[in-house]
Each structure stands twice: as structure tokens, then as C-alpha cells.
């Protein structure tokens, strides 16, 4: 029985491989599945979605789902698989590539009467194979025997090479040619892949644990957030209080915060050459060091990608908006992050003016924001963090008790800080 390797191409745990040495492999959301899927993310997957069985020297796929199982885009009930086949669990659901070695049949014993040999096309030699040696002239001026195959193998090699080059080019330029996933799909996949890289900042209070903001892991023991989040945490720790990060969708994992760092220029009033004060928060990035390690880390975008930030650039965020929302929109004991997607609306300096890259730190966007989302990572379709959400346009409204409360503006232009500001406060920030 050959071993079976399953590679998750999309969905939760994308690019992870599992090698199994069993003659029956189950796929589904059921806790006992050999390849288990997350029922929250992978909604097209049934508890016992499909089974891979090894019988009669081959692997067979058997469907047992509600939403169907597909191989090569075809819905199947039972199908014999070839190495490299891709299984789709439900239309638009997660895709899994199946790889295994094909068993070779033993050589047949010689028989008294030989069977007529089948004619099979000769396999073309590998592209890297050297050309065959030139035939020597026949002695005595005799004509050389005719060559078998002529230039066929060379033509086949050329065709294979051209196909490979075209395929590689199409893959490399797949996004520009429209072959890659849609932007919203790619952002959603990144949100799944980095689900456990975000956490809810929780402070202990006499009333019990309270959600305070959002942070994301930039290293196993370091979380990035805003200075307006890390500054109160620093004061809390200084006065003997405690705070921790509750990892998204991991009720079993809470990381105690041991240190909080504030950007040295945060909160300092600055003016431009006209004497105008900054209309939005500046240098609003901070760090939270934790006891233990994050299960997943985000990666910040490098300078060449950050230079592309401009109106229309596609982004998403994962965070915990709470203020003014039903039930605070989060269970602090088992937080589930909100994912939103949209675009950058403008990139400017802190006075909302055009500026060279070295001063273009204010990233405006159209993603909804309210208290609690502060510190959320804003990432692109490759999962690179380009900015940290930190503020929104708000208006004052009067509630039933006659008190003025904050509410997000319907204009949908909110603010973020370019991620590389973290370089000022984290010595291990990746170099460009």
C-alpha cells in the first residue's frame, strides 16, 4: 500500500501537507476525521464529507457529503484517482491535492506462445537529454540503414519545452491575466490562514475581563498594536494590574502581557511649516511583549510593496470592533475576530497632504472602524501587513439617557498607520 500525501491548496491551513499510511482516509469536519476541516471557516464541508480507499492497487474517492465532492470540476460519487488530482469539497470549498506513488506490476513469466507485442508511442527524451550520436558511415560505401523516428523526438522535445514555458509564464502572470483568485477571495483566504495571528487585548478589572483593543503577532513573543492601546497597558502594568492577549478562536490560549512599548513621538503635538496642527493621530504604533508564543505570526510588507500604497489598493483587516455594538460584538473568553475588506482611499502625511514616501505614514481607507478595532492588522492579498488601523471619523449622538455617545461617520473614511513605523520601536523589524 503506497503512502498518501494530502496538500491543502485553499481554505483553512492552506499549503499544509499530511502524509498518511492507511488504506482508508476520511475527510470532513468530524473530530475523528483523518484530515479535519474547520466547520466555522469551511462551511461547504460535511462532518463525514468523503473517504479515500486503497483497493485493488488503486486509490478511490467516495463521496458522502451534502454539498458534493468534485474532481477536476466534475461532481463525483465514486472515482478512481490519479497522482496529482485535486479534490474540491463542495462547490467553491477547500481544495486538496492527492499525491501517491503508482504501484508497478511485476514482470510476467515467459509463456510457451509469445503474445504479439503492443505498439506504443515512444516517450520523448527529457529536455536535458543530449542529442544521439551521429551514425558512422557504412563500410564499402554502403548506404547507412534508415534512421528510426527521424526528427520526431526533437520536435516533441521542442513542443514540451514551449508548453512548459507558456505554462510557467501564465502562472507567473496569473493575477495580471485574470487566472488568480478574485481579490476578495484572496483576502478571505489570508484571513483564514492568519486567523490565529490576531488576538483580543483583555484587561482584568473588578467587573471581570474586559476587551480593550486588537493586537497581532509580528514575532512569536511580540504583538503589534497602537500606542493608544499600549500606553494604558503600560500604566496598568506599572500599577500592578494585569492584562493578556486572548488568541482568536483559541479559548485555550491566553498570553500574559509582560511589557508594553509606546512610540516616542506618540502624543507629541507637531505642526507643519504653516503652523497647522495634525488633524489625526500620529506615530500611533506600539508593541506588547507576552509570556509564551503566538501560534501564528503575520509578516509586514517590505518597502517596494509599501511604495505601491495608493487609492484603490485592496486591503482587509482582522480585529475586534466593539464600541456601540450589540453585546460588544465579542466574547472575551472565546473571541472571534471580524474580517472586513475594502480599499485604501488615500495615502498622505499627517496633515493630509501629498508627501514623499519618508513622510507618507497616514493611510486612509473605507473599512468600517469603531472602538476595539484599534491595532488591527490591515493586510493585502498575499497576507502582508501594510498598515495598522488606529482611528475613524466619528460623530456625537444622544442616546436614550440623554448622554452624548460616539458613533462612526457614514462617510466611511477612516485611518491607519503605515506598518514600517514599527521599525522605530522594534530592533528586530525586518530589513528591506
Summarize the structure.
With 432 residues, the protein is mainly beta.
Describe it for me?
This protein is mostly beta strands and 432 residues long. Helices cover 12% and strands 33% of the residues. It has helices at 152-172, 174-177, 183-193, 227-238, 303-306, and strands at residues 4-8, 17-20, 24-28, 35-36, 50-55, 58-63, 69-71, 74-76, 78-80, 86-89, 95-100, 198-205, 208-219, 222-225, 243-247, 254-262, 286-291, 299-300, 314-319, 338-348, 362-365, 377-379, 384-392, 394-398, 404-408, 414-418. A 6-stranded antiparallel β-sheet has the order 2-1-11-10-7-8, with no helix packed on it. It has a 6-stranded antiparallel β-barrel with strand order 12-13-14-17-16-15.
Tags for this model:
about 425 residues; mainly beta; six-stranded antiparallel β-barrel; 5 helices; about 10% helix
Give the topology, please.
Elements: E1 4-8, E2 17-20, E3 24-28, E4 35-36, E5 50-55, E6 58-63, E7 69-71, E8 74-76, E9 78-80, E10 86-89, E11 95-100, H1 152-172, H2 174-177, H3 183-193, E12 198-205, E13 208-219, E14 222-225, H4 227-238, E15 243-247, E16 254-262, E17 286-291, E18 299-300, H5 303-306, E19 314-319, E20 338-348, E21 362-365, E22 377-379, E23 384-392, E24 394-398, E25 404-408, E26 414-418
Parallel strand pairs: 3-4, 18-23
Antiparallel strand pairs: 1-2, 1-11, 3-5, 5-6, 6-9, 7-8, 7-10, 10-11, 12-13, 12-15, 13-14, 14-17, 15-16, 16-17, 19-20, 19-22, 20-21, 21-26, 22-23, 23-26, 24-25
Characterize the overall form. Answer: globular
Q: Order the strands across the largest sheet as they lie in space.
A: 2-1-11-10-7-8
Low-confidence stretches: 105-149, 174-179
Percent helix range: 10-25%
DSSP strand content: 25-35%
Amino acid at each position: 500500500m503506497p503512502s498518501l500525501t494530502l496538500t491543502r491548496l485553499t481554505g483553512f491551513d492552506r499549503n499544509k501537507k499530511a502524509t498518511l499510511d492507511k488504506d482508508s482516509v476520511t475527510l470532513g469536519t468530524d473530530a475523528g476525521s483523518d484530515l479535519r476541516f474547520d466547520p466555522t471557516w469551511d462551511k461547504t464541508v460535511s462532518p463525514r464529507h468523503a473517504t479515500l480507499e486503497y483497493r485493488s492497487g488503486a486509490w478511490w474517492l467516495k463521496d458522502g457529503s451534502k454539498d458534493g465532492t468534485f474532481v477536476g470540476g466534475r461532481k463525483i460519487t465514486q472515482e478512481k484517482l490519479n497522482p496529482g488530482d485535486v479534490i474540491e469539497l463542495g462547490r467553491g470549498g477547500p481544495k486538496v491535492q492527492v499525491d501517491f506513488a503508482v504501484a508497478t506490476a511485476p514482470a510476467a513469466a515467459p509463456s510457451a506462445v509469445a503474445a504479439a507485442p503492443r505498439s506504443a508511442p515512444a516517450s520523448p527524451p527529457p529536455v536535458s537529454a543530449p542529442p544521439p550520436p551521429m551514425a558512422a558511415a557504412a563500410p564499402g560505401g554502403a548506404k547507412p540503414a534508415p534512421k528510426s523516428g527521424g526528427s520526431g523526438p526533437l520536435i516533441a522535445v521542442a513542443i514540451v519545452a514551449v508548453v512548459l514555458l507558456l505554462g510557467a509564464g501564465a502562472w507567473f502572470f496569473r493575477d495580471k491575466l485574470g487566472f488568480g483568485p478574485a481579490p476578495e477571495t484572496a483576502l478571505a483566504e489570508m484571513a483564514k490562514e492568519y486567523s490565529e495571528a490576531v488576538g483580543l487585548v483583555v484587561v482584568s478589572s473588578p467587573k471581570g475581563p474586559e476587551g480593550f483593543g486588537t493586537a497581532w503577532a509580528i514575532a512569536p513573543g511580540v504583538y503589534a498594536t497602537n500606542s493608544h492601546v499600549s500606553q494604558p497597558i503600560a500604566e496598568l502594568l506599572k500599577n500592578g494590574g494585569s492584562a493578556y492577549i486572548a488568541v482568536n478562536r483559541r479559548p485555550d490560549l491566553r498570553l500574559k502581557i509582560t511589557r508594553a512599548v509606546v512610540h516616542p513621538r506618540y502624543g507629541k503635538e507637531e505642526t507643519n511649516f504653516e503652523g497647522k496642527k495634525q488633524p489625526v493621530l500620529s506615530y500611533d504604533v506600539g508593541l506588547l511583549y507576552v509570556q509564551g508564543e503566538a501560534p501564528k505570526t503575520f509578516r509586514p510588507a517590505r518597502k517596494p510593496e509599501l511604495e505601491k500604497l495608493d487609492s484603490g489598493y485592496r486591503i482587509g483587516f482582522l480585529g475586534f470592533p466593539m464600541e456601540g455594538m450589540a453585546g460588544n460584538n465579542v466574547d472575551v473568553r472565546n473571541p472571534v475576530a471580524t474580517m472586513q475588506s475594502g480599499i485604501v482611499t488615500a495615502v498622505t502625511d499627517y496633515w493630509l497632504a501629498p508627501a514623499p514616501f519618508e513622510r507618507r505614514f497616514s493611510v486612509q481607507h473605507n473599512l468600517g472602524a469603531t472602538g476595539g478595532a484599534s491595532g488591527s492588522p490591515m493586510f493585502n492579498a498575499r497576507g502582508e501587513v501594510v498598515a495598522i488601523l488606529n482611528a475613524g471619523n466619528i460623530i456625537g449622538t444622544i442616546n436614550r439617557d440623554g448622554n452624548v455617545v460616539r458613533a462612526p461617520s457614514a462617510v466611511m473614511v477612516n485611518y491607519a498607520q503605515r506598518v514600517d513605523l514599527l521599525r522605530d520601536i522594534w530592533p528586530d523589524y525586518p530589513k528591506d
